[in-house]
Design a protein that fits this description.
Elements (H helix, E strand, L loop, with lengths): L5 H12 L3 E2 L2 E2 L6 H16 L3 E4 L5 E4 L6 E7 L12 H17 L5 E7 L10 H6 L5 H6 L8 H7 L14 E9 L4 H5 L3 E7 L1 E10 L17 H18 L5 E10 L9 E10 L2 H20 L4 E9 L2 E2 L2 H14 L3 E6 L5 H4 L5 E6 L15 H21 L1
Parallel strand pairs: 5-6, 5-7, 7-15, 8-14
Antiparallel strand pairs: 1-2, 3-4, 4-6, 8-13, 8-15, 9-11, 9-12, 10-11
């Protein structure tokens, strides 16, 4: 069996966290100087582990086990959100390094363990850039159009980083499976006391922008019943979301109104315009369809009552099921090492949802202290970090010996 070295695993995780360290977290956004420096450091660790290593033009770092025609691919991403946590993505990258390194040291597997560190999962320029490029879904038009929030262009960031390697492409003939691990980014595992969550699906996402039109008037002189207030109908729509969504979805359904704004935005002016953003997630497209239809009906009812509301679907990502066989393998691995586990839907997107389009793919989560993520407060107990890697190594070993 692949035997990891816990002290080495934790040491590498903490060493990676030094690149872009910000208080107790990390600020290492994609294509920044610190991001590229960290990727070069990871490439060196791959080489020291005996892997054939390359970095492509997007900054994705790949380490291939030498002398084999088939392999299990393990990894995640090392870029972060601004002033984010030290484990989001990095955990899965170092798991890939440690399991591949331990497999090389053991030397008796019939196939290899490859490691990968994808670029820009967090979407500084283009969400999941590395994994999408790997499966061939990024075209020249998308590259040319991709920009960061500050207006900087992806193509300029690539050139500025000095990246020239050929884009890494997935090889389904070589890679029998992709395995990714991640912190949960939520409180369920900490609450249940289980060491790992086995991901059954990555939830689909629908995002809508809802706009309301009215007329600006003096709020101190225009009677309330004679106003065309753009904001009030949106507030009623917000109550609809709060009151009706629980019945429209299920225990796995998530939703959020992440932004509400009114124009012109003065205390003494009746809003002439208002907008909000609504997002909802579920692992079942039928549930998402039902919610979307209910939203459209609710807006029609408000308009019938005198509102002037329109909506636009700005994002539609289908749910991505993980491979049942790999989920069962993770369960077998957790039982073999005596760790409690549960099955869970991932509400957040991951590189795994793109690799799953091409090869069997699976994910596990480890607990997040306080459920915190995307913040410098993000953390996981050392024992839980090690436990997750033990399960990952055992699952990789089982898959490798089935070939």
């Amino acid at each position: 069996m692949i035997e990891i070295k816990p002290d080495r695993l934790l040491s590498d995780l903490r060493a990676l966290a030094k690149f872009g360290q910000y208080k107790t977290g990390v600020d290492r956004i994609a294509f920044s100087a610190l991001d590229i420096e960290a990727r070069k450091w990871i490439a060196q660790r791959y080489k020291e582990a005996g892997l054939d290593t390359s970095m492509d033009r997007y900054g994705t770092v790949y380490g291939a086990a030498p002398g084999v025609s088939k392999a299990v691919l393990i990894g995640s991403h090392s870029d972060t959100v601004p002033r984010g946590g030290w484990l989001d993505g990095a955990l899965g990258v170092i798991y890939g390094l440690e399991v591949a390194r331990a497999a090389q040291e053991q030397g008796d597997l019939p196939i290899g363990i490859d490691a990968i560190n994808f670029q820009d999962e967090e979407g500084t320029y283009l969400p999941c850039l590395g994994s999408r490029a790997m499966i061939g879904t990024i075209d020249d038009a998308a590259l040319a159009a991709a920009k960061a929030t500050d207006g900087s262009k992806l193509i300029d960031a690539i050139a500025g980083a000095g990246l020239t390697g050929e884009p890494r492409r997935l090889d389904p003939a070589r890679h029998i499976a992709f395995l990714e691990s991640h912190i949960e980014q939520g409180p369920r595992l900490e609450h249940s006391g289980n060491k790992v969550a086995i991901i059954t699906s990555i939830a689909g996402i629908r995002r809508m922008q809802v706009l309301s039109e009215g007329r600006a008037d003096h709020a101190g002189t225009t009677p309330v019943d004679m106003r065309s207030d753009a904001l009030t109908p949106l507030l009623r729509f917000g109550l609809f979301v709060a009151d009706r969504f629980p019945a429209l979805g299920n225990t796995e359904t998530m939703w959020n109104i992440g932004r509400i704004e009114a124009t012109p935005g003065a205390a003494n002016v009746v809003p002439s315009g208002a907008r909000l953003t609504l997002e909802f997630r579920d692992s079942d497209d039928a549930v998402l369809d039902r919610i979307e239809a209910a939203v459209i009906d609710a807006i029609a009812a408000l308009n019938k009552a005198g509102a002037h509301i329109t909506s636009e679907l700005t994002a539609k990502i289908s749910p991505t099921p993980m491979d049942n066989g790999i989920a069962d393998t993770f369960e077998q691995a957790a039982r073999a090492v005596g760790y409690g586990y549960e099955r869970m839907v991932s509400g957040a997107g991951h590189d795994a949802m793109f690799l799953a389009r091409k090869i069997p793919t699976g994910m596990i989560f480890v607990p997040s202290i306080g459920g915190r993520s995307h913040d410098i407060a993000e953390n996981t107990k050392d024992e839980d970090i090690v436990a997750g890697c033990v399960v990952m190594a055992r699952a990789a070993d089982i898959l490798a010996r089935k070939v």
